[in-house]
Amino acid sequence: MDPSVLLLFALLTGFLLLLIRGQGNGYGHLPPGPCPLPLLGNVLQMDRRGLLKSFIQLRDKYGDVVTVHLGPRPIVMLYGTETIREALVDHAEAFSGRGTVAVVQPIIQDYGMIFANGERWKILRRFSLATMRDFGMGKRSVEERIKEEAQCLVEELKKYKGAPLDPTFHLQCITANIICSIVFGERFDYTDHQFLHLLDLFYEILSLVSSFSSQVFELFTGFLKYFPGTHRHISKNIEEILNFIGHCVEKHRATLDPSTPRDFIDTYLLRMEKEKLNHHTEFHHQNLMMSVLSLFFAGTETSSTTLRYGFLLMLKYPHVAEKVQKEIDQVIGSHRVPTLDDRIKMPYTDAVIHEIQRFSDLVPIGLPHRVTKDTLFRGYLLPKNIEVYPILSSALHDPQYFEHPDTFNPEHFLDANGALKKNEAFLPFSTGKRVCLGEGIARNELFLFFTTILQNFSVSSPVSPKDIDLTPKESGFAKIPPTYQICFLSRQLG
Question: Which amino acid positions bind heme, per UniProt (predicted)?
Answer without folding.
Answer: 436
